[in-house]
Amino acid sequence: MIGGGQGAFIGAVHRHAAALDGLYELVAGAFSSNPETSKASGQILGLSADRVYGSYQELIEREKALPEAERVQVLSIVTPNHLHFAPAKLALENGFHVILDKPMTFSLAEAKELQTVAAASNARFCLTHTYTGYPMVKEARQLVASGELGAVRKAYVEYPQGWLSNFEEGSDNKQAAWRTDPARSGVAGAMGDIGTHAFNLLEYVTGLSVTQLCADINTVVPGRKLDDDGAVLLRLSGGASGVMVATQVAAGEENNVRLRVYGDKGGLEWQQVDANTLQVKWLDRPTEIRRTGTGYVSSYARHNTRTPSGHPEGYLEAFANLYRNFALSLQADLGGKSAPPEALDYPGMEEGVRGMAFIENVIASGRSDQKWTEFTV
Amino acid sequence: MIGGGQGAFIGAVHRHAAALDGLYELVAGAFSSNPETSKASGQILGLSADRVYGSYQELIEREKALPEAERVQVLSIVTPNHLHFAPAKLALENGFHVILDKPMTFSLAEAKELQTVAAASNARFCLTHTYTGYPMVKEARQLVASGELGAVRKAYVEYPQGWLSNFEEGSDNKQAAWRTDPARSGVAGAMGDIGTHAFNLLEYVTGLSVTQLCADINTVVPGRKLDDDGAVLLRLSGGASGVMVATQVAAGEENNVRLRVYGDKGGLEWQQVDANTLQVKWLDRPTEIRRTGTGYVSSYARHNTRTPSGHPEGYLEAFANLYRNFALSLQADLGGKSAPPEALDYPGMEEGVRGMAFIENVIASGRSDQKWTEFTV
Amino acid sequence: MIGGGQGAFIGAVHRHAAALDGLYELVAGAFSSNPETSKASGQILGLSADRVYGSYQELIEREKALPEAERVQVLSIVTPNHLHFAPAKLALENGFHVILDKPMTFSLAEAKELQTVAAASNARFCLTHTYTGYPMVKEARQLVASGELGAVRKAYVEYPQGWLSNFEEGSDNKQAAWRTDPARSGVAGAMGDIGTHAFNLLEYVTGLSVTQLCADINTVVPGRKLDDDGAVLLRLSGGASGVMVATQVAAGEENNVRLRVYGDKGGLEWQQVDANTLQVKWLDRPTEIRRTGTGYVSSYARHNTRTPSGHPEGYLEAFANLYRNFALSLQADLGGKSAPPEALDYPGMEEGVRGMAFIENVIASGRSDQKWTEFTV
Amino acid sequence: MIGGGQGAFIGAVHRHAAALDGLYELVAGAFSSNPETSKASGQILGLSADRVYGSYQELIEREKALPEAERVQVLSIVTPNHLHFAPAKLALENGFHVILDKPMTFSLAEAKELQTVAAASNARFCLTHTYTGYPMVKEARQLVASGELGAVRKAYVEYPQGWLSNFEEGSDNKQAAWRTDPARSGVAGAMGDIGTHAFNLLEYVTGLSVTQLCADINTVVPGRKLDDDGAVLLRLSGGASGVMVATQVAAGEENNVRLRVYGDKGGLEWQQVDANTLQVKWLDRPTEIRRTGTGYVSSYARHNTRTPSGHPEGYLEAFANLYRNFALSLQADLGGKSAPPEALDYPGMEEGVRGMAFIENVIASGRSDQKWTEFTV
């Protein structure tokens, strides 16, 4: 693991996600750019002191020098955005498989370069767009793909949070500090932190691509340096349209990602607060409540479930599904077999590059007087 | 009543709403432009044959000729949009109080002219924006006005329907036919039919005015002559922003108007499907569930409630609240007293003119390449 | 109307319910046993002074003396329980149709006598078990009757309220006072006030009869003279079993009647707080959400609905459905036709007698050390 | 781990729960009474072959022979009920800490004997009543304990499942087979499998004890050998009363454990399907929605949470909380410190004995003609 030392949020999430299925063992880390902090974190995590490194470069170099059977196989990179590219690139160049937190990089240019590096490597790559790991999100994608809803006409995605309603970066809030800092977060705040998730979710489930957008991007809290709120009109491939809302100043909201997609025959609705339910709506018959863990759901939903219906699976399980599928893909590679399509269904380079393109396009549109901006990659 | 003959939807709703509290008696009508249909409708409704007229002109002329104690006092006009202006104008000019279905007129120009007519008349006027009649919508407005949520930063309103997902106007659907016909509905379809409700609800609860908008207006169903879908970015007075979504092609959706408003201290959420609940969300304490009929709600909510908490009040009750408040205002006038502010809180001319301005502005924005359109009246 | 003067709750509900569809006109009343109060109430309600009477005897005598075309046709009796029997009997004996609030009488003996009186009369009779007026409760009954859920195995009904959590009868609460007074309410408090509703709802939807019961009946609030809480194990005809819970001391609960019924193939769930939804659950396919006002529901549900789906209908509409069906039945009688089965589906004598039997049986069981008490009528 | 070989349900759950926080490492197992199956299971789980045993006796004997630093510290016993007592006893007698699946034993007599054994041992013991691991269940218990709801008057607990609606034990369903077999499950079916959970949840949250009960116990599915349905009237210490419902034949239900508790000032409601929400209801102010991961919840809720609010935690996290608290308690022991009360709050011997007493009392009551059965241990 690179990053994720004491006080980090997402590093712990990655560790839970990796641990849940017993398919990973944490054996090495460079948990902080401060070697002391890194060492202390490694000790708390029970790592052998000689596998805790002072930098990602040292980690990669020294692990590579170990016999293949002993060295780390997968590197989880859970640093702030500005520290994604360099370690990911070095890891891929040295043949380590990489699991990288989103958004992929600091800029679209970095993302494209990383894509090139990855294309030349044999290593696998996963970008942790958590929400696509939920079984009912898998079900939603399969439902759209099946054509049962008809051609997609409209998609709404929203991601409301309230935790940045005050000037949190002015107090001792590490999470707020880096996310609102252009030097660490990049050109976008909310659009990068949660907008990319919403964008990815919409493209994943609809199977469509955003082709044009028109954004209203705001910095609501005085003194803040990056956007904390946005709303975007979308045009999608195939003639559909959509709306995306992502905000971090919706006071009182937690983290309720919500997606609705409508075709000419029916629609679907999913929201994280009721993550194990997929509502399927029809023009002229009752709404269906599809549920995680039941016998009637698609193989993709079933594959990403651990318990029978009625035993709620949550955020960590969704996250763990990414880790699990990545591991199953690697195991298949090692065994010389091809993994089943359900295991290969995790976000990768393409999603990462499009996410970075979204960030740059949406911020550009927000600054533009022109109504529609082409979505360029 | 003018309009609302057999086969009409909203006419029957008005009659239920008027009847519920026993404050109105239906005594006269011109229910159709076809005198035979009008007569037949009047008979079914149990009216005396001599009070059923062949046209609104005849109704107004002949009712005016009756002794004051006998003549109709209030005229409900429930015709399609293109037949709002003329009867409303004539009624107001002749001193009849008017309850008019929304949107107010066929065009903004008509709306302004009607406003001038009304200003010169002693007659009262009510526009039936039903949703503002719900007790918990009243509560929402009072909550925002109280300042408890802080300054409003963000407002989201949505009005998804699915009933026009197919080309209904091609079949024998009277409701679809006139709503999609530019000659009867006006310049807008969905934006006029449901968009105006959403717009009114947002302005009513926030107490703010839309100042600029940027609209994506679509005609999704092939062959349709007016918009059936739209999404609008909004800028509001006081620096807030918002998003409005109104569509009639969200297959499987019924009529779930939903509003969310966020200030810097908290937020609120109301949706028609759970109309007797107002969610009040706070930055750092539990969400509150405020309910119709409880002892702790505002005088405005209480005034618009008929039963103790736990006895759901619905759409007809919300509609009836407009009728009831209008009647209470008239009774106060007749008694030489002023009605309490709770009774005077019903939509009127100002809301009607702004609604028509919304329609024209949003359609113009939809056709424009310019990002932001000033909201002009 | 008999009873329902100023300060009464249910009288106003009956008036709204009667008014909603324009099928009734309130023309006469004996609103209170105090002639002054009755007169004052009549004046407020806009009745002609000569049709406001000082007692129900006077009302019935003098109305009967009027020409048939002028006299009142239907008498709504909305007095406390101890004043149900005498006016209902006198009304039926004199050929007036009767709508009576529940529970039917003060005792089972009275109920049986009233049944005998009614059998000898041509007058129609309706008992206002409101909850069976909801469209989705109609749908539930039809669904069970269709056999789609298989043979009923289990039924749960609950009726939790919290408004009697304190000793309200010690303060100036008229509603609490008579409901907790054995001289006015009868042998039961909560079991009569809300338990009968729950019992009726269960028998109505399942189509089964309670055959045995085992009750835990409590008076929770110190000083109270009647039960305010109860839970009852039920055995039903056909081998099914059930549980009924009714309480008025569930602090914080409003009035959320809820019913669940399970057959061997599926189950259903309805609750008043979401009255326009019927959940239909299946062993091996998704739960269905059936909704009021849709095209796919049964003729019984459709018949009892006024607005398209998505326009919530509430308690007053459910109540009004009883009044409307009663009126449609009378209109059919008057026209020499038979009303459609949907209109004839309202609670009557049989339900009233069984409700009173429930009260006496459940209180007896509560006092007994014997586990199972036969349900005797 | 003892039990939990291939095809078992709860064994995998225990492994996920143990793995999630990285506090346990699976090093040894006797996964099946069949040595071949045990070996195969161990291999799949990646265990060293010499730590996979053919029986629990062998496991305990040989692990005990290992140096203390190498031997297994905690034994998870996840066998069917009839195989709980013997391995648990042997483990405790040999100083191994034990985590045991519920219900504790095959009979109350065994449970008491195990309690005696444990009292004489230094080993810690945890019984996996999962539902008390949910953060909002912790919050519920703390809320009741705080007295804010007033004295508890009423408690309702329900546990509806539908998966045994058919004669599943007649087909190839291992889970159904042993749960409906008196030789493996004990004297009870549903009452042992899910009734004990409901009973435990009720006593845990209310802090009260069941003192008397009156049970209706049914075997609904023809041919089944144990109960699959029950409803129980409860009397609780302190004068409160309650109702418990547990069934496995509610066709279409998943696993929605639900608890409601009412005091004289307010009430609470929790249900597993919305596990991160605790509804707190008040007599005269709005219902509060308390949520997992927020800043305002009790230290007990916070201690049992891994992610910020809005990231749903589910069944495996609740299960993992038991494992985590057990590990934290052991770590504190090893460090010579006392664990914080939040870590010590996991179910143990006392809960196990009471659970077995519940099973025997409830089945006895079900067979009795006497109304109330004393709850004896």
From TrEMBL, chains A, B, C, D:
Residues 9-126 form the Gfo/Idh/MocA-like oxidoreductase N-terminal domain. Residues 138-269 form the GFO/IDH/MocA-like oxidoreductase domain. InterPro entries: Gfo/Idh/MocA-like_OxRdtase_N, Gfo/Idh/MocA_oxidoreduct, GFO_IDH_MocA-like_dom, NAD(P)-bd_dom_sf. It comes from the Bacteria. One of its GO terms (molecular function) is nucleotide binding. PANTHER family: CONSERVED EXPRESSED OXIDOREDUCTASE (EUROFUNG), OXIDOREDUCTASE. This is Gfo/Idh/MocA family oxidoreductase. It comes from Hymenobacter qilianensis.
